[in-house]
Design goal:
This protein is mainly beta and 100 residues long. The chain has a domain of 69 residues. It has no helices and six strands. Strand 4 and strand 5 form a beta hairpin. The chain is globular and about 55 Å long. The termini are far apart.
């Protein structure tokens, strides 16, 4: 519907989030990260699930643009490697996800 309409404040809950401060114990040669996730908008593009990511550097478990689980590894040179799961994570279902 075209036209002008009055605006209004709409509150929303963006989801769960935690920020963990940098710590030398997080700089490891190898690691395993896991989480229980309940995707509500898996088809809305790439979304970080559990990440330590800045620019192109770090690591993370992501929902990919096709809703599949992805593990990203990025180094200081800007190179990013990723491994993708074989099946999409469906909306409104619980999943145990792991990257190692």
């Amino acid at each position: 519907m075209s036209g002008e309409y009055p605006g209004r404040v709409q509150r929303y809950a963006p989801g769960s989030c935690v920020v963990v401060a940098a710590d030398p114990r997080l700089r490891q040669e190898s690691f395993t990260v896991s989480a229980f996730v309940y995707p509500t908008t898996p088809v809305k593009g790439v979304q970080g699930l559990v990440t330590r990511w800045s620019g192109t550097c770090g690591w993370g478990l992501f929902l990919g643009d096709d809703s599949s689980l992805e593990l990203w590894l990025g180094d200081d040179s800007g190179k990013v490697s990723s491994i993708r799961g074989g099946a999409p994570l469906h909306s409104h279902s619980w999943f145990a996800v792991v990257g190692s």
